[in-house]
């Protein structure tokens, strides 16, 4: 039987400012074998953010057209802006046998879980709420009002971590990366065992 192994889908969530982007950048620099989906958003670019690199920046109308045309794997409204994952990229990359990592907020992650239960869901937590506030404030990319909105959303998001397979603390970026890499290795071992079992069960004498 021709059994083509697909890539694994990892979903990384966590409250704004916990360090998802920082940890993903560090994983890239380490050369961890993951592909990163670029999301679509209606949020305005921050200083230094480039279209097609950090996000695909779209108008509300363009975003709604993508929803209507079933071009998004998931989407959500988060603190006044829309965010979504382009479906085609994820499908194609998994079909090529490569692992994909989505860095998305919890409403979107739960949609992925419904439609793609074999995904692996990781929730990144800060050492404390005080440290979260310090990180998002020191980043200096949002106004005080927006920081407050994001911290309010964080309380509800943290409540949702019970729906995730793994909860990883981002105390130090390097340690958080080590833990995520350990999850990737463990999930591949698990997949290899399942495939082996499936092959044995379907073998014809
Ligand atoms: N382990 C860490 N220790 C100290 N500071 C950290 C750590 N991880 C990230 N930071 C800092 O915290 C701030 C927020 O990080 P980052 O932008 O990666 O968060 P995020 O979760 O991607 O946020 P958002 O969801 O808003 O995009 C950055 O200034 C970053 O340098
Ligand atoms: N549901 C989705 N959430 C996404 C996506 N891309 C990013 N995000 C999350 O949005 C918030 C805010 O991001 P920011 O860049 O404005 O700070 C954060 O939690 C991201 O992880 C997506 O495609 N879908």
TrEMBL record:
Residues holding ATP: 14-21
Lineage: Bacteria, Bacillati, Bacillota, Bacilli, Bacillales
Transmembrane segments: none
Domain Guanylate kinase-like: 7-185
Keywords: ATP-binding, Cytoplasm, Kinase, Nucleotide-binding, Transferase
Gene behind the chain: gmk
Record-listed E.C. numbers: 2.7.4.8
Stored NCBIfam families: guanyl_kin
Free-text function comment from the UniProt entry: Essential for recycling GMP and indirectly, cGMP.
Annotated GO MF terms: ATP binding; GMP kinase activity
Compartment(s): Cytoplasm
Family to which the UniProt record says this protein belongs: Belongs to the guanylate kinase family.
InterPro entries, A to Z: GK/Ca_channel_bsu, Guanylate_kin-like_dom, Guanylate_kinase, Guanylate_kinase_CS, P-loop_NTPase
Catalysed transformations (reactions): GMP + ATP = GDP + ADP
Name recorded for this polypeptide: Guanylate kinase
GO terms under cellular component: cytosol
Gene3D superfamilies: Guanylate Kinase phosphate binding domain, P-loop containing nucleotide triphosphate hydrolases
HAMAP family: Guanylate_kinase
PROSITE patterns given in the database record: GUANYLATE_KINASE_1, GUANYLATE_KINASE_2
SUPFAM superfamilies recorded: P-loop containing nucleoside triphosphate hydrolases
Taxonomic superkingdom: Bacteria
């Amino acid at each position: 039987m021709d059994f083509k192994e697909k890539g694994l889908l990892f979903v990384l969530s966590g409250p704004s400012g916990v360090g998802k982007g920082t940890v993903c950048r560090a994983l890239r620099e380490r050369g961890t074998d993951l592909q990163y989906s670029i999301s679509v958003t209606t949020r305005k670019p921050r200083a230094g953010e480039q279209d097609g690199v950090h996000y695909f920046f779209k108008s509300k109308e363009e975003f709604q057209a993508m929803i209507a045309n079933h071009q998004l794997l998931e989407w959500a409204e988060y603190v006044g802006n829309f965010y979504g994952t382009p479906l085609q990229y994820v499908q194609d990359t998994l079909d090529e046998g490569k692992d994909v990592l989505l860095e998305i907020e919890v409403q979107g992650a739960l949609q992925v879980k419904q439609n793609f239960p074999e995904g692996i869901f990781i929730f990144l937590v800060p050492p404390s709420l005080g440290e979260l506030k310090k990180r998002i404030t020191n980043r200096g990319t949002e106004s005080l009002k927006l920081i407050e909105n994001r911290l309010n959303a964080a309380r509800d998001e943290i409540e949702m971590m019970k729906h995730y397979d793994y909860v990883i603390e981002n105390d130090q970026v390097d340690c958080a990366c080590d833990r995520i890499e350990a999850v990737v290795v463990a999930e591949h071992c698990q997949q290899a065992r399942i495939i082996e079992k499936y092959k044995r069960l379907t073998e014809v004498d």
